[in-house]
Amino acid sequence: MGNKRISKNTDLNDTLYTRVPLRSTQVTLGGRAEYYYPIGRNGVLLGRVRGESLLNDRLFLNDLFRLGGLATLRGFSEFAFYASSYAVGTVEYRQFTGPDSFVFLFLDQAYLQRKLAQGANADAPTGVGAGISFRTGAGLFQLVYSVGRSKQLNQKLALNASKIHFGITSRF
Predict the structure, then answer these.
(1) Which of 61, 110, 133, 172 could form a disulfide with 88 if both were Cys (CB 3.0 to 4.6 A apart)?
(2) What is the pTM of this model?
(3) Burial class (CB in 10 A: 0-12, 13-18, 19+), 80
(4) Per-residue pLDDT reduced to its tens digit, 49-71
(5) Strand partners, 21
(6) How far apart are the first and last CA of the chain?
(7) Bridge-partner residues for 145, per DSSP?
(8) According to the model, what pLDDT value does residue 82 have?
């Protein structure tokens, strides 16, 4: 929870600010739950749900959560979606090939809602794919191939709209 303050831009006409409250209270709620279920000798089924919500009557586009990409919603470009509230459910099967190495198949299903002063919309994008994760000298390297479907982006599950995500996570 915090106080949101809008500063007046001196280059703009003062009448633009007459209908906008310059101070308001903004609350951010968030949660995450995950469960790892062992399957066989080296397999794990991961179930995860995470979400966040911004509560304020005067949200602007730059206030919203940015979703998409390796960390939030695979199958889409980094920060492809703007949302005032979201929930992302993940089901991922991991087959371990070593202590810090595994190949995996996944499904990410999201529900996104964007509420701004100009209006509201919602979407339920889906991402599916496969990848590999292994330890390097720099950290854990992950390479993912995925496709996504979104009504808002007018994107269907198609190979010509596929994404390759990669990243390194350092652990200390």
Answers:
(1) 110
(2) 0.85
(3) buried
(4) 999 999 988 888 888 999 999 99
(5) none
(6) 30
(7) 130, 164
(8) 94
Q: Locate tokens 């509201």: which residue?
A: 120
Beta-bridge mates of residue 130: 105, 145
Give a three-class secondary structure readout of the chain.
CEEEECCCCCCCCHHHHCCCCCEEEEEEEEEEEEEEEEECCCEEEEEEEEEEEEECCCCCHHHCEEECECCCECCCCCCCEEECEEEEEEEEEEEEEECCEEEEEEEEEEEEEEEECCEEEEECCEEEEEEEEEEECCEEEEEEEEEEEECCCCECCCHHHCEEEEEEECCC
Counting every residue, how long is the chain? 172
Residue-wise pLDDT tens digits, 113-131: 998 878 889 999 999 999 9
